[in-house]
Amino acid sequence: MAARKQNQSKVAEPVEPSLWERMERPAPAPRASLSLERIAAAAVEIADEEGAAAVTMRRLATKLGVAPMAAYRHVAGKDDLWALMIDRVSRQLAAPDESAGWREVLRSFALQTRELMLAHPWMGSIPLISLTPSRMAVAEQQLAALAACDLDADSMMAAFRTVNSYVHGSTQAEIILREYQERHGWSGGEETRKALAPQMNYLMSTGRYPAYERYGLEAARKDDHDWSFEFGLDCVLDGIAKRLGI
Amino acid sequence: MAARKQNQSKVAEPVEPSLWERMERPAPAPRASLSLERIAAAAVEIADEEGAAAVTMRRLATKLGVAPMAAYRHVAGKDDLWALMIDRVSRQLAAPDESAGWREVLRSFALQTRELMLAHPWMGSIPLISLTPSRMAVAEQQLAALAACDLDADSMMAAFRTVNSYVHGSTQAEIILREYQERHGWSGGEETRKALAPQMNYLMSTGRYPAYERYGLEAARKDDHDWSFEFGLDCVLDGIAKRLGI
DNA sequence: ATCTGAATGAGTACAACGTACACATCGTTG
DNA sequence: CAACGATGTGTACGTTGTACTCATTCAGAT
Asked: What is the Cα–Cα distance from A185 to A188, expressed in whole angstroms?
């Protein structure tokens, strides 16, 4: 084991075994080929194209043209990778112009966040802790918009949290529904309802779900997720305005 | 390969290899030891005690005193198991008494749901699709409470979704924070802040997060998650009441 | 010009996972 | 009592995250 270390450079091996051996080896590998930027970009690309579950360290290494363990020199593990991915896509969230009031700012970020999550559905199935730089920046902009209303610090943070909790909860539900539909190959709401009709009919025939049944029969905006999201968002903003008197 | 199949039953092995072999084997196994109820209970117990990640088919089998593959006779796979677990714990959600108005009903279920999720934090890290029976029942009770206000079907469902999106988003964030703290061995908010102080100080010294900094200095209810949750909840309910005129 | 130590990547290895498949055993029903 | 369907056992395979060791390259000091 340690004996190998004893090898002196000058004398070395008498038969020169390395030449042909090296010729066989693919390439001497250019260095510094990896970087956090490149790793994040590749991981996001994989997740976008093949889903969150496809982001494995091996798949990532393949995409980067690198050995399975190489990325571990740059990230501590899978968790670091998620944080990196979240931070990268979150960079594209931008505040409306400076003159915007608190409500416009929060509303704009809410709509953008939903769009972002729908564009990168893997964001819904990730443990997003992360005080990543871009997420901190977004939070600061929202808090600053609220701070302009002369709120105490606790109310400011509570309002911020309320909106963002709603946005995440709502969008996550939407993503889960979409993935469920995709997994079964149902393209739209109509098709989904058709496929689920037998089970639904059975459930409704029990008479235990009259309110649900009325929704099934009377609702006109069953597939209008934009409307549904904005309805809830405006409720939340109304409620904050009323409760804080702003 | 296929040759083994040729074995006829009658002649079999001449040396009677099974007697001592059987003596070694634990027991002939009493039948029908498994049931969906028992499986669900065991899985919930594991998840409660050791976290969602500890719920593996093998760990489950061990707890049930059964071979690793046994549970597959009852559930199609991991997804079925999650649904079973969610349904089981959701059974304990109960409506307030019948005279309660829509707001009381929604508020009560919101508080209960948060308690339930905090008591079973694995609920936050699970793909909860699931039209499970108990979840359907809870939804119906909330919808019925709203339906009593003469709302159109779309508004009824939108209000329902708004509240529940907030509840899930908010509680999930709380769970993530808790798990983050536990992972680092920080017991409370104060201890967490102390441990994070160096990074925080650095971030604040950049001057990029003034609103955040003010929160850190001035806030008085930083660790009062109950207050924070109820503040948001009441905002949401206020907003719904205003927007729907109920 | 050469040497050296720190970065970085390659390679091998392992335990644990979900689950497919073939087999053994039980309770039930004709 | 014989045969069958339901249920539990056992073995096996491919994939995962990641620990560990070794090889190569680059930068800077000599």
From this structure: 9
Radius of gyration of chain B (CA): 26
* Window 19-38 of B, Cβ < 8 Å to A: none
Neighbours of A34 (CB within 10 A): 18
Q: What is the mean pLDDT of residues A50-77?
A: 93
CB contact under 8 A, B172 and A168: yes
Q: pLDDT averaged over consecutive 10-residue blocks of chain B (246 residues)?
A: 33 39 46 86 97 96 93 92 95 94 98 98 79 93 97 98 97 93 90 92 93 97 98 98 96
Q: How far apart are CA A184 and CA B57, in angstroms?
A: 25
A111 min Cα distance to partner chain B (Å):
15
- Residue with the two structure tokens 């108005």: B101
Asked whether residue A5 carries a pLDDT value surpassing 90, the answer given is: no
Q: Is the pLDDT of residue A117 over 90?
A: yes
- The helix, strand and coil proportions of chain A, stated in percent and rounded to the nearest 5, come to 70, 0, 30
Question: What is the total residue count of chain B?
Answer: 246
B99 burial level (CB within 10 Å; 0-12, 13-18, 19+)? exposed
Tokens of residue B71, six digits: 């549970």
User: Over the stretch A21-50, which tens digit does the pLDDT of each residue have?
Assistant: 444 444 444 556 789 999 999 999 999 999
d(CA A183, CA A174): 14
| Residue pointed to by tokens 């084997």 | B25
Alpha-carbon distances of A53 from A7, A97, B72, B101, rounded to whole Å:
46, 37, 23, 43
Residues 148-187 of B with CB under 7 A from strand C: none
Q: What's B222's DSSP letter?
A: T
Distance A41 CA to D11 C1' (A): 41
**Amino acid residing at B160:** F
Give helix then strand counts, H and E, for chain A: 10, 0
Residue B99 DSSP label: T
B31 CA – D5 C1', rounded, Å: 14
pLDDT tens for each residue of A186-223: 999 999 999 999 889 988 999 999 999 999 999 999 99
Contacts of A165 in chain B (CB under 8 A): 166, 169-170, 173, 232
**Element housing B20 (H / E):** helix B18-24
Give which of A89, A93, A153 is closest to A120, Cα–Cα.
A89
Residues 151-170 of B with CB under 8 A from A: 152-159, 161-162, 164-170
Q: Is the pLDDT of residue A133 over 60?
A: yes
Q: CA-CA distance, A182 to B219, in Å (whole number)?
A: 45
Q: Which residue has the tokens 């339906």?
A: B147
